[in-house]
Amino acid sequence: MSYVIAPALQAAIYARMVGDAALQALVGDAIFDAIPPATPPASYVLIGPEEVFDRSDKTGHGAEHRLVISVVSNAMGFLAAKEIAARISELLDAPALVLSRGRLVGLWFERAEARKIEGDQTRRIDLRFRARVEDN
To answer: Which of 9, 16, 53, 88 is most buried, judging by how many CB atoms fall within 10 Å of its CB?
Structure first.
C-alpha cells in the first residue's frame, strides 16, 4: 500500500470538524494543517503529523495511519483546550467518515498529552488516533 488514501482521510477529518456547529462555537474556522503564519487565534486546531504503515494483505491494499490532531489555546488553564479536545474526540468517534477514495475500516483514539508551553500561557493537547483504511 502506498500513501494514496492520506489526502482523502485528512479531507474527511477536516470536513467532519468544520461541519460541526459545536466545534465551530469553540474555535470558529480556526482549523489548520499548518501553524497559522500570522498571529494565531486564541484557540485553534492543528491537523498535524502522521505515520503510515502498510497493512495490505491477500484481500487487498490497506494502511494504518497514526495521526495527531492538536488543540492549541492561550486561554487561562486547560479547561478551554480540554473542551475543544473532547469535542474532537466525540466527532471522530461518531459514525465512520466517508472518504473520497478508499474506505475507512476504523478510527480509534489512542492517547492524549496535555501540556503547557514553557515561558508562555499557551496550552497544547495532542490527540493521537489510529485509522485503518483500505483502497477500493
So the answer is: 88
Domain boundaries, the chain: 6-134
Give strand ranges (E) for the chain: 31-32, 43-54, 62-73, 103-116, 123-134
Cβ contact 61:3 at 8 Å = no
Query: Cell 472518504 maps to which residue?
Result: 99
Q: How is domain 6-134 classified at the architecture level of CATH? A: 2-Layer Sandwich (3.30)
Which of 114, 107, 81, 84 is closest to 10 using CA atoms? 107
Determine the pLDDT at residue 136: 76
The pLDDT value given to residue 1: 59
Q: What is the pLDDT of residues 35-86, one digit of tens each?
A: 888 888 999 999 999 999 999 888 888 999 999 999 999 999 999 999 999 9
In the chain, the N- to C-terminal Cα span, in Å, equals 12
Residues with Cβ within 8 Å of residue 104, at least 6 apart in sequence: 9, 12, 96, 97, 98, 131, 132, 133
d(CA 41, CA 73): 8
